[in-house]
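Q: Fold this one first, please.
A: Sequence and structure below.
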Amino acid sequence: MKIEELMDKERKAQYRLLQALYASKNSLLLKDLMKQSHLSKVTLLKYIDNLNHL
């Protein structure tokens, strides 16, 4: 069983966001993250803000 299967929708999206950032050698554009994650700009920014408060 993968760890992602145990997460709710928001945590899964945040986990995938962290994976994408970790794997990236350069900075990522917001629009690229939106395409990759299939999230709206508002939702993506909310998830990023939540990660910043951890």
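Q: Good. Now the second chain.
A: Here it is, same layout.
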Amino acid sequence: MTGHHMFINLETCQMYCLPENYEVIDSSLDDISRCLRPEFSQAQIASLDLNATLARDVHGVAYLPGFCGLNNLKHTDYINVVVQALAHVQPLRDMFLAENDDVESAAKRRPLVRKFRDLLRKMWSKDNFKSVISPHDFVQEVTAQSSNFKIAKQGDAVDFFRWLLAELERQLGGIEESFRGEILVETLQRRTHLTKSDVEWTRTETNTKFAYLTLDIPPTPLFKDSRGGNIVPQIPLFDVLAKYNGVKLTDSVKAGVQSRKRYVIKKLPRFLIFHFGRFLKNNFSSEKNPTIVNFPVKNLELKDQFAFSSADYYSQDHPTKYDLLANICHDLPAGLGKDAQQDPLQFGTYRVHVRQVSSDQWYEIQDLHVAETMPQLIGLSESLLAIYVRRDATLSS
């Protein structure tokens, strides 16, 4: 018959034939519904990390659910890497994949929650028509809700990560619970403009919640190598973790007040995030510190690295051993170094490393490019955010 057209309701996935306006129920159309609105049972969600079976799209291209490439909508790679990393944080992922009443209720009222939920479900679906996914709807909602993030303008992945977690927590709740740790900050302060040499320090203690720990990377050396290029040093992770050993004092001066801070960990979260402070921003320019921080992919033991407020914290009830789950890194084009005039944030690109739990295989994802990689190479990247998961929270140890 001519002049008849099939239409689908994007909310209910019901199909109708117009102009007669009758519903079409045909099992041959189910694959369209599964692609448009993927659904997951509790059993399927529980087995996601154990699945190593490749799916195939309608063109016969194989892909591994959960490790799909995302389209770069012109300088939106900083959004892609954050979504890829969060898609492998099990509690957050499971919350959005399941038919959760809280999520469904918030999704009806909050477009950001709905678009993020739909994107995660497509990333983990085995019924996609294409092996790559466009985050267009989600990115559009992000740009609509925040003027700090725009299509066609490169952004800061750390800023977006911070904003997305805060917005999902505000609009839905229960997001930061897995990331939230507790730290005791001891602050010593005195005014620097006073001439007396015996000015006393004022001491305060504050209990603070944290979603990630910022690690300060030491400045790069001023010396050049034999060819006149900048020397890129390498330091172990444990050197920058010394900030939280309960002994080291971190100094700063602001508005005529000298501050010294000492940090003591009170509680470590299930998912521990390290932010490597690579970018130094001021009113005129932005510089990137290219120092390589070598960090372990497995068995990161923090018992001897951190100072805990309670001596019996590291016990059976509070394990302190972590495995790397995801790593977001930033790359600059060749020749764009510290002496260049360009903003490294605007001219750099992002990629992410994520681990397939059942096979212990690592993948490097950069927009549409998905490839296997070796764990030895991950610790040599210019990492910005590293997400670790506590050993008692992993499916395989």
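Q: Anything worth noting on the second one?
A: The longest helix spans residues 157-171.
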